[in-house]
Amino acid sequence: MHAPTALHLHLDDTHAADAVLAVLTVVLGGVGLALLAVDSVAAMVCGAVGVVSGLSGQLVSRTRAERFADITGLIAAALAFALGAATGQLTFSG
């Protein structure tokens, strides 16, 4: 029996569509956080799309690395959406 190493990421089990969703989620979360300094509405849109892609990525991910990237991007996207909404751009009063 051998001890598992951190460098063994099961890359042979990774599928292209799952990896694309994970990378897309991380990118959308990062862009959403960066857009907070410029435009909060665009940050909210990136955050909302990032949350949807992160949740769907969680449903189809097969490896731990993909799930880790999904959760990281999902948190960043949710923060971008929440902080964009906190600036007063999301109102329900019409």
Distance between the termini: 64 Å
Strand coverage percent? under 5%
Q: What is the N-to-C order of secondary-structure elements (H for helix, E for strand)?
A: HHH
- Number of DSSP strands? 0
Give start-end ranges of low-pLDDT stretches. none
> What overall geometry do the principal axes of the alpha carbons give?
elongated
Tally of helical runs? 3
Structural class computed from helices and strand pairing: mainly alpha
Report on the structure:
- With 94 residues, this protein is mainly α.
- It has one domain (16-87).
- Helices cover 71% and strands 0% of the residues.
- Helix 1 runs antiparallel to helix 2 and helix 2 runs antiparallel to helix 3.
- The mean pLDDT is 85.
Give me the secondary-structure topology.
Blueprint: H1 16-35, H2 40-60, H3 64-89
Helix pairs in contact: 1-2, 1-3, 2-3
Gist?
This protein is mainly alpha-helical and 94 residues long.
Looking at this protein, list some descriptive labels.
94 residues; mainly alpha; 3 helices; elongated
